[in-house]
Every structure is written in structure tokens, then in C-alpha cells.
Amino acid sequence: MSAEGALDLTHADDGGVYFVDAADFEALATAAKQGKLYVCRADLEGCHDKSELLKRLAMALKLPSGFGQNWDALVDSLRDLGWLHGAGHALLLDHANDLRQAAAKDFDTLLGILHEAANFAIGQNRPFFAFLSLPEHPISLPTHR
Hints:
- By secondary structure, the chain is of the alpha/beta class.
- It is 39% helix and 17% strand.
- The chain has helices spanning 25-34, 50-60, 71-79, 96-102, 104-123; strands at residues 16-20, 37-43, 88-94, 128-133.
- The radius of gyration is 14 Å and the shape is globular.
- Mean pLDDT is 88; it is low at 1-5 and 139-145.
């Protein structure tokens, strides 16, 4: 926590994938904006497969029209989000449980890609956070001083 008790998302080493409650999204978006991170929000309600997931992520991330609509293209895009100006990036994925329940393999693949993107960003000293709202949220959020 900071002196004011605010969430701090400016440390690249804290980047990663976090499961949170949807009620936390406004505070996370505010903290990301205060840290000069670009915030991307995608609602995954009713998202039941890879194709629909990639369409929603492409819209949220404002991916170029040539986006390949496959996992490799998503990996490449998340490694280079330069068209989304900010000191880093925060993805807020609401209703992630819909995908997890309907297409567990696609959900697991997405998690792997998000983890890889976060690790890549850490290597670039760039904050990258992916927050997925799930009914349970077992992972604590990063805070400093």
C-alpha cells in the first residue's frame, strides 16, 4: 500500500494474472490510470469458445484489422501493444467464469498466454496486468509502501 492506502500498479515486477471480484474493477481501473497504464476492458459474459474470445479481445485491445484470430497472433499482439499508449497495460476481463465453464481448455490457453505476456513485459520493465473476474478470487492484489 502507498501512504494513502492506494493500489499501486506501477511496478513491472508485480505484473501478472490476477483473479479478482468484479466489484474490484473500478478500483483497479482507477489505480491503473493513476499509474499511467492503458486500461482495456472486455466483457466475457456469454463467451463460450476461442473464436468469440478472440473477437472480444481484438475489440478491447483495438487490434489492427489484420489480426490473425488465432493464439499465436494474440501472443504477438500482447507482446507489442505500442498502439495503446501508456506506461504499461491493464486488461480487465469481466465474467471470465463463463469461458472457464464453457471451454476450460480455451480458458487455460488464455491464462498461459496472459502469463507469458506478463513475463515478457517484466523483461521489458513494463507493467502488464491481467485481471479476470471470477466468483472466487484467491490471489492477493499487488500493493506497495
